[in-house]
User: What shape does this take?
Amino acid sequence: MRALTLLAGLLLITCISLLISLLSGSVAISWQELLAIIAGDADPLQSQVILDLRWPRSLSAFTTGALLSLAGALMQVLLRNPLADPYVLGVSGGAASGALLALLIGLGSLGMHSAAFGGALFSMLLVFGLSHGSGSWTTNRLLLTGVVIAAGWGAVIGFLLALSPEQGLRGMLFWLMGDLSYATSPTPGLLVLLGGLLIAVMAGRPLNILTRGEQTAASLGVHVLALRRLVYLLASLLSATAVTLAGSIGFVGLIVPHMLRLLGVRDQRLLLPASALLGGSLLIIADTLARTLLAPRQLPVGILTALVGVPLFLLLLHHGRNLHSETR
Assistant: This one.
């Protein structure tokens, strides 16, 4: 009952966030007008604003936030470290580099998504390979390696931007900072989210056992190596899909799982779908603020998530006392 109550509450928050996003913007639309648009009996201009602009963007914001939160939750439980996150470990940087390279050579959306996934997977393999090295593997060493790799991807991104034509440079910069202005096709990302969430929830019980340690999980019959590979691939795919939708957006995958753990959510079968719902709702709210704070000018949503994420994470550190224990 507690799990159902939490999921129902998060689903309600998601619906409210979507409604606020649809009603907010440079063109004022009331509740009555929104109901008329849903019924198909409204002004054509207002219908176009809602159906062609705000609804796809709001759904893309939800999908992106859910993808990042789910990927962050998977990485944290796999590494048993609360600082694991697609942005911190360089996975988002690898995906962004691959996507930018695809844009630079003129590939279509399918090529861009494939290049982003390849970059994310390569970055994750690079981080885990280098962090192991010839010595013992530790999560602290992995995080340090991830920070260095992320900095390296930043240099690659800068190089690709230097080679890019000037007429598309501003759009690329906004996209790299996290921008949903051109996210008009959320359906592929939503399908990846639903498929990834289903796989993650099905793996929830083995992941619960894995939080006790790899040796304990192996003794209880969990195929640790196969589970790790599955989570590596799934987290890479989720991160790459989020990057292709909205660019590099930080702190969502880092903060959301902590917020739920501080509420006492430990079971991965509940934490993973709850993270997706809460992360999607938070990014919808952030994107709504990005559209309306300086209207008619729009801010990259990644700037707002960073501005909110940094103090929020510091607050969680202050109140959480021992965040490492939350992932175990």
The chain has a mean pLDDT of 85.
